[in-house]
Each structure stands twice: as structure tokens, then as C-alpha cells.
Amino acid sequence: RTGEFSAVTQHLKCVCLGVILLIWEVYIADIYSFLFYFFKLQTAYNRKSHHQVSNVMHIRKHLTLTHAQKMLIRIDVASVTSWLAPIIWEGTFDPTLIDFIYKQQNLTIATTVFALGKYTLFLKEFLESAEQHYFVGFRVNYYLFTDLPEEVPEVKMGENHSLTVRKVPSMNRWQDISMGRMEILEKLIENELASEADYIFCLDVDTKFYSRWGVESLGRLVGVIHPWFFDAPRDQFTYERRPESQAYIPAGEGDYYFTGAAFGGSLEDVHHLTKTCREQMNIDIANSIEAIWHEESHLNKYFLYNKPSKLLSPEYLWRDINAGAAQIKVVRFSHVAKNNAEVRPNV
Ligand SMILES: CC(=O)N[C@H]1[C@@H](OP(=O)(O)OP(=O)(O)OC[C@H]2O[C@@H](n3ccc(=O)[nH]c3=O)[C@H](O)[C@@H]2O)O[C@H](CO)[C@H](O)[C@@H]1O
Ligand SMILES: [Mn+2]
Asked: Active-site positions, per UniProt (predicted)?
């Protein structure tokens, strides 16, 4: 009985020590170092030693710097891939600093969005929320493709933001609308954007912005980790598994599962991406096969062999504003809840 008792005390001791260490780390260490430098500084002033004062100030400055750096580290998520591409999470970048750096480059970001059929009802919230959070202070040209231009709502554009509406033919299957985006994007980049933009993002319309999406997202080739699979093991990724499809990815391969609802990058890279996906989908059509998740499957195949240079965390496309996860400190952009049967032309 005594042995049992002392084992419990031992355990308790460890827990107490752990808690004390934690409190020390989080609260007291900083106060201690502040007092330490405060008194050192006072002594230096009392002695009227200018050299000593600046010496202490220098150490103090260094201390604050490492503290700031500490703030830019996330230990609960990976912030770099095995091919050294950054993964952007809240807390891994300084928005003020990164804005300042990109401001000097005078960039234009083309942004495409499709709203066919009943999906025009998502436009108002999409555009209004984008104007509050999406590349505020930078030049943005939206290219909106729709079969119903008369349904496009009036939304006041911010400074340096503009909206171009393009009419496209209606289609009977939502899958064809979704996949058809690749070819339209390919042609848009080819025929028009060369002298008009530096970067492009292609976004789903059944979405809404809730927080900053800014220049931290820019890169040569940018993929967004799918909000349902960021925490899932690779064998659960919903890649196309039939070898007959061009989107086929064998078991044991693949790095991340990316969403088809948001991707982007330089014009050259996104042109190559959209062209490749369009060609692969055409081969599938000729072979009478449709990839399980349509262009998203082809996008994942593309990213497997053409590694993105930057990854955006699911903060940049969350599943629904009401769904939570410990790693998600900020929801920047999110799918809105929708009733597929109500808005899609087919089921
Ligand atoms: C989170 C996620 O993984 N989303 C993917 C998933 O669906 P979603 O359920 O999000 O697909 P969706 O219905 O939003 O369709 C994709 C996009 O096509 C457009 N659209 C679609 C139907 C229509 O009648 N009118 C119209 O304009 C619209 O811009 C929409 O945002 O599967 C799709 C195709 O497999 C895409 O890969 C999406 O990126
Ligand atoms: Mn969608």
C-alpha cells in the first residue's frame, strides 16, 4: 500500500513540476528578463556609462527580435513540404511586412469565377465579401463567366478592383460546367491576360470570404489543401484509382489532396496546368471514362508531377464557416452551405 501511495505522489510531483515549468515559460520568463534588463539598464545609467547603456539596449533588442520570431512559428502544423514549398498558415507570416514588400512590385491579380444557371445566386456574397478581404490595396481584375449576364448583381468595386463579365453557353450537367472551366481558363490566359496580369487565381463561386486573403498567397504554382483531407492519411485521399483514367494515381503515391475549388499562380504555370488538365480530360472522354472528382482529380494528378511552389492551408478554403478544427485559427475563405439538388441542373 505504501508503494502504491508513493507512486501516486511521484506522479503528482511530476505533474506539479510540469505545470510550474509551463507557467515559468509562458509568463514568468519574460517578466524575469524584463526586470533583469531593467535593473542592468538602471545601473548603467547611474554610472553614466553610455557604452554600457547601448550595450544593454542591444541585448534587449535582440531579445525582442527572437521573441517576434518565436511568434511566427507554428508547431501544431507543418509549414513546409518535403520539396521545401511553404505551407501558409496563420502565424507563419507577417501581413504588414509582406504587404510592404509586394506593394513595390505594382502587381495585377486576375481572378476568375464561374456562375452558370442558379449559381448566380452566390455572386452577391462572393463579390461583396471579396471586396472586403481579397487583395485589398492591390490591383485585382475579376473575370466572371456566366450564361446569365443579366443576373449579375451590382457590387461596388474597391479602389483598383474591376469586374469583367463574359457570356458563356449554358450546359446541362454540373460536371461539364465544372470541368469546362479548364478550357475557358486556358483560352483566357492565352488570348487576353499576357499583358493584363501577373498572377491568376481560379475560385469556386459557392463561397464567401471571412478574413484576409492577400499577397502571402502569391507564387509560381499554388495549390490549396482540401479542407476534408488535410488531417487524413494518404490512403484516404479520394484520388482517381482506375488506371483507365488519365487522372489515375496508384496507391502509395501522392503528397496532399488538393481542392479543385481554388488554385492559382503565374500566368505561364496556370496556363500549362489548365491546358494539361483539358487535354487529359479529353483523352478520358475519348475513352468513355470520367474521373471520380472530375477536374479536381486531374488537378491532383498534375500537382503530383508538377509540384506546387506554394501550398495554402485549408484556411484558404474551409468546408463551412460553422465547422471547426484546432489547427484552423482563421477562416479566410469558405464554401457556403448549399443544397446541391436545388442549385445544380442535374443530380
Ligand atoms: C471542396 C471541393 O472539393 N469542391 C470540388 C467539388 O465540388 P463542389 O460541390 O464545390 O462543386 P460545385 O457545385 O461548387 O461546382 C464547381 C463550380 O462550378 C460552377 N458551377 C457548377 C454548377 C452549376 O450549375 N453552375 C456553376 O456555375 C461554380 O463556379 C461552382 O463553384 O467537386 C467539383 C467537381 O468535381 C470541383 O472539383 C470542386 O472544386
Ligand atoms: Mn463549390
From this structure: 296
Range of the domain at 30: 2-71
Render pLDDT for 65-110 as a digit per residue (tens, 0 to 9): 444 455 567 889 999 999 999 999 999 999 999 999 999 999 999 9
pLDDT at 223 over 70: yes
Any domain includes 77: no
ipTM of this complex: 0.92
Angle between helices 174-188 and 267-286 (to 10 degrees): 140
Classify residue 82: in a domain, yes or no. Answer: no
Strand order across the 161-167 sheet: 87-88, 310-312, 221-225, 258-266, 199-203, 108-114, 139-146, 161-167
Any catalytic annotation for residue 296? yes
Q: Answer yes or no: is pLDDT of 38 > 50.
A: yes
**Pocket flag, ligand 1, residue 137 (CB < 6 Å):** no
CA angle (247, 253, 257) in 5-degree steps: 65
Ligand approaching nearest to the C-alpha of 177: 1
Strands 221-225 and 258-266, by their bridges, are antiparallel
Q: Looking at the structure, do residues 332 and 264 belong to the same domain, yes or no?
A: yes
- Residues 41 and 176 grouped into a single domain: no
Q: Which atom of ligand 1 is nearest to the CA of 120?
A: 27
Determine whether the annotation assigns residue 296 to a binding site.
yes
